[in-house]
Design a protein that fits this description.
This protein is mostly helical and 315 residues long. The protein contains twelve helices and no strands.
Length: 315
């Protein structure tokens, strides 16, 4: 009697990466990984429980992206009325609403469709979450609930979400280039405002060109891996700066309260570092270029700072 074949850890991680590459990190589910690896979801959890942290770290790319840009409203702080009150309030409300909606959606998925299913099932209910068509669980759930109109409703919801996200990112992102130019760390022309609308028009055009370059450089899932890795890196540096400022300037005025300091910020740094290290190990083709681009910003910063200082001295 032959021995039952055991799927190696590397095969499961490879299956996870294949699912991400095919459907995007936002649609990565335990059922999809189990299906790709040829295992039942319960078996996957039981057999690879010790490696669950690695799988979780890779899977977090999509969930982190769903809450990413939570801090982008701070880029427009100079244009916000009563920022001492409204910025913390918007950060708390925005992040809280997204997390609540994310959990609620998963609750609905698990209550409408079974986690397991049949690959060749004739109905959506028979296929379940594990074998949802093209791994589009949300569309399957909406169709099961509302019939053929459910797919149209899901498409409309995706479009609405995408346009809303684009609006916020375009508005906030351009302010970064504008602020850099104002501080002498980027081309001066980027700091020019539109004569009529008083918006950073040149900065918006620079952002458009860079966005187009990113769009043709890889797939949706690949860009997410690059973006989330770099975003987590900057979040870690920002939160580490909190410890530095508390140490160097203990008496400084602090209008915002860091809830859970120092434990909560430290836990965040550790967890974010773990995810980044795993992404570097198992997705090097996308995360290492992101790290190199981020590190290249260090000499560029010093070069622009020196150039700015020389200009002020000569003036």
């Amino acid at each position: 009697m032959g021995r039952k074949k055991i799927t190696p850890d590397g095969d499961v991680l490879a299956a996870t990466l294949r699912v991400v590459a095919r459907v995007g990190p936002g649609r990565l589910t335990l059922a999809a990984v189990a299906k790709e690896a040829g295992l039942a979801p319960a078996t996957l959890l039981q057999r690879f429980g010790s490696k669950r942290g690695l799988l979780l770290a890779v899977a977090q790319v999509g969930t982190l992206f769903s809450a990413d840009a939570w801090n982008n409203v701070t880029f427009t702080a100079g244009e916000v009325k009563n920022p001492n009150r409204n910025l913390p309030l918007s950060l708390a409300l925005g992040t809280g609403v997204v997390i609540t909606l994310y959990i609620a959606c998963n609750f609905v998925y698990l209550n409408v469709l079974p986690l397991d299913g049949i690959a060749n099932g004739a109905t959506i209910l028979e296929r379940g979450i594990k074998y949802a068509a093209e791994d589009r669980v949300g569309t399957a759930v909406m169709t099961q609930m509302f019939g053929s109109a459910g797919g149209l409703l899901m498409a409309f919801a995706v479009l609405l979400s995408s346009f809303g996200c684009d609006n916020g990112l375009i508005l906030a992102g351009a302010r970064v280039y504008y602020a850099m130019a104002k501080d002498g760390l980027f081309f001066r022309s980027v700091a020019k405002l539109h004569p009529t609308y008083k918006t950073p028009a040149v900065s918006l055009m620079v952002q458009m060109v860079w966005t187009c370059a990113l769009c043709v450089s890889g797939s949706y899932g690949q860009l997410l891996d690059y973006i989330i890795f770099a975003a987590l890196l900057f979040y870690m540096l920002t939160i580490f700066g909190l410890f530095v400022l508390r140490y160097k300037h203990p008496e400084a005025e602090r209008p915002y309260r860091a809830i859970g300091y120092p434990v909560l910020p430290a836990v965040y740094i550790v967890m974010a570092l773990f995810i980044d290290v795993v992404l570097l190990r198992y997705k090097p083709q996308f995360t290492w270029p992101g790290l190199i681009i981020v590190l290249s910003g260090i000499p560029v910063y010093f070069l622009w700072s020196r150039r700015s200082s020389d200009s002020l001295t000569s003036a």
